[in-house]
Each structure stands twice: as C-alpha cells, then as structure tokens.
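FW: tagging you since you asked about this chain on Friday. Here's the raw sequence from the shared folder, copied in full. Didn't touch anything.
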Amino acid sequence: MKKIGMVSLGCPKNTVDSEIVLGNLTDKGYSVTSDEGDADVIIVNTCGFIDSAKEESIDAILEMAEYKKKGNCQKLIVMGCLSQRYKDELLKEIPEIDYLVGAGDFKSVEEVIESENPPNPPLLKGGRGGFWVREPVFDFNENTPRILTTPRYTAYVKIAEGCSNRCSFCIIPKIRGPFKSRNVDSIIREAEILSDKGVKELNLISQDTTMFSADTGLKSGLSELLKRLIKIDGVRWIRLLYCYPTFLNDDLIEIMKNEEKICKYLDLPLQHSHDDILKAMMRQEREGEIRGLIYRIRDAIPDIAIRTAFIVGFPGETDRHFEHLSSFVKEMKFEHLGVFTYSPEEGTRAFELPNQISEDKKNERRDAIMEIQKRVSLEKNKRFIGTTQDVIVEETTGSDEFLISGRMQTQAPEIDGVVYIEKSEVKAGEIISVKITKAMEYDLVGEAKNQ
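HL: got it, structure written out here
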C-alpha cells in the first residue's frame, strides 16, 4: 500500500481541494502519512496568486524534492494554481517534479499515481517529468470522499468555483475559470454529512461568496442557502468568507441580523478607498457606495465584526491616495484588517500600467496601515472586557499561564485573533461561555464560566 504525503498551501479553497484529493486516494486504498520522509508519493498543492505565495510554493516543492534522495518518495506531484499557470517553467526549472496537475483536477492526481502513462488526455513530456494540465476541472459533490485536515469541529464548505470579476490586479479568473455555483441540494447534503461527523462550525468559501447563484439568475441565492443551512441540527455557527460587496444586499444583511447560527462576522475585501485607485483596479464599487454599505451593515448589526483587505502600492498610488486610505482605515475602524503589497502579475491588466511603486515604498505603506490597525484593534478588543462571550474551544497551547485557546463568533479560524482561556476542564470543540478579562492588540484573555 503506497503512502501519500500532502503539503497544502494557500487559501482555504486550496485546503478543500487537498482534502478531496486525500479522500479520493484513501478511498482507493492508499494511506496518508504526515511524515514526508515515509511517503511513497508526495503531493504539493500550490498557490500562484501573488509573488510571496509563489515563492512559498517553490520553496515547498524544492524541500519535498529532497525526499526523493533522503526519503522513500518515488513520485513528486505538483498541483494547484502554480501548476495551472506555469507548467512549462516549473518542469524546466525543477526537473525533480514527476507530474504537474492543474487546479482542482482531483481525478488526474489518482491516475498519474496509478499509471506511468495516463491514457487521456495525453501525457506531455518536458525534461524528466510530465505535465497533465488541462482547463480547470472541479468535479465534486457531497458524495466525493473527503478527509478533513481541519479540527474535527470546524470545516470549510466550498459553494462555488472560479471567478467572473475582472479586477485588474488579479490572475485568479485566468487560473480557475469563470464563476460557477454549486448545486444547492449538494451543498446542503454535504453540510448534513459534516454535521453528522461532529462539525459545529461551517465556513462558507468561494472566490466571491455573495455572488452565489447569480450565475444561475438568482439574486438572493446566498440568503436562500443560509435559510436551509440553519435548519441542520448540530451546526452551531455558519461563517461567511470572501464576500465581495457587489452582491451584498439587504436580504443577506437581514438574515445575518436575525439568525443566531449565522456568525456576526463578514469578510468584505475592499482593496482600496480612493475612487482613482478603485477605478484603476477595475473594482465595481466606489468610495460612496462602500461607505453606504458599511453604514447599513453596522446599523442593522451593531455587534458585527467586519474583516477587510487592502492593497497598497498599486501602480499610480500617490501619497494623496495613500493618505486617503489611511484616513479611511482610521475612520471606519474595521475589527480585522489585512494589507497586501501590490504584486505585478503577468497576464493582468495592471501589469502593464505605468507609475509602478518601489518595493520599499509598498512595504512602508503596508507597515503604516498595520500600525493604525493595531491601535484600532486594541480599542475594539477593550470593549469586550467584562462581557461574557460564546467561545469555541480550540487547542492546548502549552503555555504555563493559559492552557487553552478558542475563538468567538467574531474570530475566523487561522486569520484572526484568539481568546486565551484560563485553565479549565473543557475539551476542544466545545462552545462555552467565557468572561473576557483582558484585551491585547489582536487577542483576548478570559475565564470559563461555570464549566
């Protein structure tokens, strides 16, 4: 029985792809190992979104390639966005790669493992390896085997594939194809299966979650999906990630306001605040619309946590544009915020734009925004002191003072802060009441109540 090792990089959407690959392979009789040195086949699921992600992927491939010399690895398979985008270059530069498989092409992974000469499509040779990269294929449903790599109480649910937005900085539509919603019944059945396995928290993901079902002609498809998901026994929290503002309507705000199971949390990537830059980015919204939307959301749901992301150093971003963004961040006081430095990506419209910004200036602007956000985040966190919050218990930290950490509804897994809980006899996956006693810049400290 061959042993499979998996390295999964990038976003939660990639995580789901990796989980499906592992599920398919174990269903075929393979075993999974966390020890790459013991693996007969190593799969690296890559990210190719921006320069830093590409560098991380290349480093991981080279690291795994060493196990062909010092471990048991007989085949090194590279899949995902980087394979989809740079198949020729990868095989030329890293001949240790045996096979390249495109984004989401789960079945091809199985076939290149099982056969030296996969029958269809034809294997194309390059260097000592071969690539089997075709148009993005995302062929899965609720019956597709899947092994969760997240803790047993939380899972990502991918509700759509691809992207039909045309942001000038983004290569994703060319890598992953146009936006395509999954069948609603399939999503519901998958959620029921996850609930039966003990999953309490569902994190809904796609490239543009609020666009769900718009490609099929439904204007309120996400709201209708949520109305069905909240009826599933066992599911306690439902979280919305990657919610572009374009399709975020009053129906969605209303259901988030009224339904306890839907986390008071919204991941709303805005990218910038100044109309000049938003236009150059080919974003659909302008500052006035963005402000109006944020005000509507907070008026309806005062305790909501909004996470957003901005890009600094976009071509043509002047000091005036950046000061506008800085003022916007100070004024809007987002609960969670991330900043990316602009990455010039071949094949995007922005790649050809004049007035590119130096890396030093980009980094300086990123650091300046994050300094502002530190103060905002601390101010926001102080409001929780003395309150009691529901917290999903996550893990033992190994610290002498705080042995347990968890998350509130307003904290998404992996990207936001945590709540450190003073020693208590609770188990990972439980949702408990915690009295918040201390606030830090991004994290909180609390005491479990009456456990």
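FW: The mean pLDDT is 90.
HL: agreed, and The radius of gyration is 22 Å.
FW: great, closing this out.
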